[in-house]
Amino acid sequence: MREVEAAAMAAGTSGLDLMERAGAGVVEEMIRHWPAEKPGISNPTTATGGRHVLVLCGPGNNGGDGYVVARLLRDMGCMVHVAAFGDPERLKGDARTNWQRWHDGVAEFSTSSMLGAAKAAAISGQKHLPIVDALFGIGQRAPLDDVTEVVQDVFREMKEVGIQPWTVAVDIPTGLDTDSGAFLCRQPIIPQLVVTFHALKPVHLMPHLADAERAVVDIGL
Predict the structure, then answer these.
(1) pLDDT of the chain along its 221 residues, tens only?
(2) What is the DSSP string of 109-175?
(3) 185 within domain boundaries
(4) How many domains does the chain have?
(5) pTM of this prediction?
(6) What's the CATH code of the domain at 133?
């Protein structure tokens, strides 16, 4: 994938264009698969209607995709909460540009900040909180327990406020090796929907993701 992306950029496609297309593709697939809600919550195929969404952004280009997703969902009317793993000030290149384009504030990567989004969703009447996993992409390496354990704690505590996580992985679920499918932590973030780009990767065809919806987005590579 790195070689394919490099060839596309050498041919004149900018990294920012690729990141924008990736984020737009994730949003399109989220809307297509969005879980049904209680009466009174708008259907996002026609209007996002103030739905709360939590976007988890990492310290690299996968996080840059997440900031695009956050911005596009916000512009569609969602109440978007962003939590960043790592200091966004240290982002580089296209990821930094998309963090700056987001410009709506970023919460710390903590149980309390993420539960704040869950409680806001519950108060508004949602029974699902869409959570976008844009933490790490194809280059993630073990150990990742300091990341995944925080998210798993949030999943458990969300049940206490009566809301279910509906998780969307941007390209690669956090905690799984792209090529081998090996666990990079004790408990990876297994999503309900995976949105990947250009082609499925080996991990997408492994038993870990057997129950997940999978979507491949063409970003012009």
Answers:
(1) 888 888 888 888 898 999 999 999 999 999 999 887 754 444 444 445 689 999 999 999 999 999 999 999 999 999 999 999 999 999 999 999 999 999 999 999 999 999 999 999 999 889 999 999 999 999 999 999 999 999 999 999 998 888 999 999 999 999 999 999 999 999 999 999 999 999 999 999 999 999 999 999 999 87
(2) SSHHHHHHHHHHHHHHT-SEEEEEEES--TT--S--HHHHHHHHHHHHHHGGGT-EEEEEEESS-TT
(3) yes
(4) 1
(5) 0.93
(6) 3.40.50.10260
